[in-house]
From TrEMBL:
<feature type="domain" description="DUF642">
    <location>
        <begin position="68"/>
        <end position="235"/>
    </location>
</feature>
<dbReference type="GO" id="GO:0005576">
    <property type="term" value="C:extracellular region"/>
</dbReference>
<dbReference type="InterPro" id="IPR006946">
    <property type="entry name" value="DGR2-like_dom"/>
</dbReference>
<keyword id="KW-0325">Glycoprotein</keyword>
<dbReference type="Pfam" id="PF04862">
    <property type="entry name" value="DUF642"/>
</dbReference>
<dbReference type="InterPro" id="IPR052437">
    <property type="entry name" value="Pectin_Meth_Modulator"/>
</dbReference>
<feature type="domain" description="DUF642">
    <location>
        <begin position="1"/>
        <end position="49"/>
    </location>
</feature>
<keyword id="KW-0732">Signal</keyword>
<protein>
    <recommendedName>
        <fullName>DUF642 domain-containing protein</fullName>
    </recommendedName>
</protein>
<keyword id="KW-0964">Secreted</keyword>
């Protein structure tokens, strides 16, 4: 950890691991790479929670397609320590097998931020993800698909109501298809935008990727990185209409 993402002096981070035994040691240390050996990082408020394995959303309503994305609403994720107002950073290059955001990988050089509805504007539910650092801040998930079948990727884009103003653009990729969704932000939350990307699967596994097109900083300090918020991600199979079939 070297990059500071906030200007108030504190960043919260999350890591995950698979327990190999019923007891283990947690070690936090200073690697000694600071310019001034008399200085060092401050550590406070360490917490551990059990993460539930991600599952696809099985629809129980007739006529409603199954969501192939695991943890698409981001409700399962790292513990947010009470009293903290800056969210939780999920570090870069995190694979899905050991991700503090179950089902998702952070495929980038910079972290993404896990935010809660108590301190930020969340489009739906209680949790969402903020893409902090342009193309260097991306999340991805690999889903099972049937080659040749048509699908629809849908997701919601908004802002976190944290002073992140201007045009916030999310780029989404599903297989060979892509789209750009712009959200004009006043930095105060407001109406989020729903987007849909149709695509045809080319393989038995399809990678879904989200990242921000631009770098942004909060208007209140002009230094803290910020970006668009994504939430409520879904991929459903779209059945082709038979020739001559009538609409119901």
């Amino acid at each position: 950890m070297q990059t500071m993402y906030s200007s108030n002096g504190w960043d919260s981070y999350a890591w995950a691991w698979d327990a190999a035994a019923d007891a283990f040691d947690v070690v936090i240390h200073n690697p000694g790479v600071t310019e001034d050996p008399a200085c060092g990082p401050l550590i406070d408020s360490v917490a551990i929670r059990t993460l539930n394995p991600p599952r696809r959303t099985n629809s129980v309503r007739p006529g409603v397609a199954e969501n192939l994305v695991k943890n698409g609403d981001f409700e399962e994720g790292p513990y947010i320590i009470p009293g903290t107002r800056w969210g939780v950073l999920i570090p870069s290059m995190v694979v899905d097998e050991h991700s503090p955001l179950p089902g998702w990988m952070v495929e980038s050089l910079k972290a993404v931020k896990y935010i809660d509805s108590d301190h930020f504007a969340v489009p739906r539910g209680r949790r969402a993800v903020e893409l902090l650092a342009g193309r260097e801040s991306a999340i991805a998930q690999v889903i099972r698909t049937v080659p040749g079948r048509q699908y629809a990727l849908s997701f919601t884009v908004g802002d976190a109501s944290n002073g992140c103003e201007g045009s916030l653009v999310v780029e989404a990729y599903a297989g060979r298809e892509s789209t750009r969704v712009a959200h004009e932000s006043a930095g105060r939350g407001g109406a989020a935008k729903r987007a849909v990307l149709p695509f045809r699967a080319a393989a038995a596994r399809t990678r879904v990727v989200f990242f921000s097109s631009f770098y942004s900083t909060r208007s209140d300090d002009m230094s803290s990185l910020c970006g668009p918020v994504i939430d409520d991600v879904a991929v459903v199979s779209v059945r082709a209409r038979r020739p001559g079939a009538k609409r119901g």
